[in-house]
Amino acid sequence: MRRFYTTLFEVRQGHFFAANATLAISMESQLHQLRCIGCATVIVQRDLKENFRCLGCGELYEVEYPSWNAPSRRPNASALRWLWQERRSSTSPVDRSGVWRFRDLLPIVADERNIVTLSEGNTPLYELPRSAEALGLDRLLAKHQGMNPTGSFKDTGMTAALSVAKEMGYRWVACASTGNTSAALAAYAARARMQSLVLIPEGKIAWGKLSQAMDYGALTLQLRTDFDGCVQVLSEVVRKAPVYLLNSVNPYRLEGQKTPAFEIAEQMDWSVPDHVIVPGGNLANCSALGKGFLEMKSLGITDKLPRISVIQASGANPLYRSMMANGGEHLEPVEANTRASAIRIGNPASWRKAVRILRETGGWCEEVNEAEIALAKAEIGAEGIGCEPASAVTLAGLKKLVQKRRVASSETTVLLLTGHTLKDSDYTIAYHRGELLREEEAAPLKPEIELTRRNTIEIDASVEEVLRVLERVSA
C-alpha cells in the first residue's frame, strides 16, 4: 500500500505533465471551455478541480465550444454529414470509432495520438416489431449500446474522458461503479497502458461485470457500503492522490456519451425520432443525449428535437419523486433498492442536468416496478435482441407513456438499451425459472409473465420424448 501511494505522489511531485501535454492543454483551451451548470462560471481545463465541482456553488461543469457562436467558424452541416459517412470506410482506428469519427463536435483532445479507442460506437438501431404491435405504435426502435466493446454504453464516454486523462499525463484513473463503468474503465485503461482503480459496493454488483474489471487488470476494491458510499470515498481519494476521476461527474465522459444522438440521427437519414427513452440511474445518459441533440439542432445538422424521457426503477427513483413533488427544483436522495443493478443509485450526480434536458425537450419521468422491468426484459429478448435489466425500464416506461397518451401511435420512438443481455445472466435465468420475483411482486402481471417464461424442460434422451414435447408445445 505504501509503495502504491509513494508511486502516486512521485508522479505528482515529478512533473507528470510533460511538455507536449502542457502544449496540448493550451491548444485545447482555445477550442473548448467549461461552464458551471449552477452559477454559469466559465473556466478552462487546467482550472478543473479533482472532483469536477465548481468552487463557487458546488455544481457540475459542462463542456462548450465558444467558436461555434461565431458564424464564420461554425461547422458546415452538409460537409460534416458527408465527412462522417466517409470516415466509416477508413482504416484509421480513430475514424472507425463511432465516437471519434464525430470528433469535429467534440474537439477535446489536441493530439490524436492520445486517443484511446476500442472501435466503440457504431451500434445497431433495431426495429422492435412485436413490441410496436403490442403497443399499437407504427414504429418502435432500440439503439443498442450493449453492442459496444465491453457490453455497455459506458464505452462511448470512457474513450473520451480517458483520452483526455492520457493527454494530461495521468497514470492512474479511477471510478466508483455498480458494474458497467468499472468494466469500461478497466478495459480502456489497459489499452492505454494506464493503471485503474475501481471501487464497487460489496455484494451489489452483477458478477459478469465484476469479472470484466478483474480480467482487464483493475485494482478492484469492494467497499462495505452502497454505490453512493463508494462515490464519497473516491471523492476523497482523488483529492489526496493524483488519480483521475472517470465517473460521470467528469464532463468529458458526457462528450463521448452524446455521440449516440449523432448516430441515431444518421441512421434515420438525418431525421430525429419523436421520442427517445432512456434508463435513469446516475442520469448522465439523459444529459449527454440531450446535449447531443441540442447541439445538432443548433448547428443546423437536424431541424428538431426529440422528447427525451427518463424511466427509473420504483426502488431507485429520486428523480421521479423530485419531478412529482416539486418539478425538479430539489432532489432528496433515496436508499436505492432494485434488482436492475446498473441503475441502483439513490443520489444521482447529474440530476440537475437531466432536469434541464427534460424541460428543454418536453420529456417526462416515469417509474416502473420490478415485475414490469422483468417482463419488459423478456419481451425485448423475444425480439431476438436482449438487454440487461436496467435497459428494460425503457420499454416498461414506454407502456405507461402510451397508456397516458404521451406517445401517439404515429410517432417514432427510440429506446436506449444501455447494456448487453450477458451482463447479468443470473437475472435472466432466475426469471425463466420463476425464481426472480416474489409471489406478490409477480401477481399483477402473472399471466403475461407466464407467457414469456422459457425454462428448460428435463426429459429422457430419446427421439420420442423430444417429438412429444415438440407436439405439445406446437399445439
From TrEMBL:
Its EC number is 4.2.3.1. InterPro entries: Cys_Synth/Cystath_Beta-Synth (IPR050214), Thr_synthase-like (IPR004450), TrpB-like_PALP (IPR001926), TrpB-like_PALP_sf (IPR036052). Coiled coil: none annotated. GO terms for biological process: threonine biosynthetic process. The modification N6-(pyridoxal phosphate)lysine is found at K154. Residues 116-419 form the Tryptophan synthase beta chain-like PALP domain. Gene3D superfamilies: 3.40.50.1100. The keyword Transmembrane helix does not apply. One of its GO terms (molecular function) is threonine synthase activity. Its cofactor is pyridoxal 5'-phosphate. Keywords: Pyridoxal phosphate. The keyword Transferase does not apply. Belongs to the threonine synthase family. This is Threonine synthase. The lineage of its organism: Bacteria, Pseudomonadati, Acidobacteriota, Terriglobia, Terriglobales.
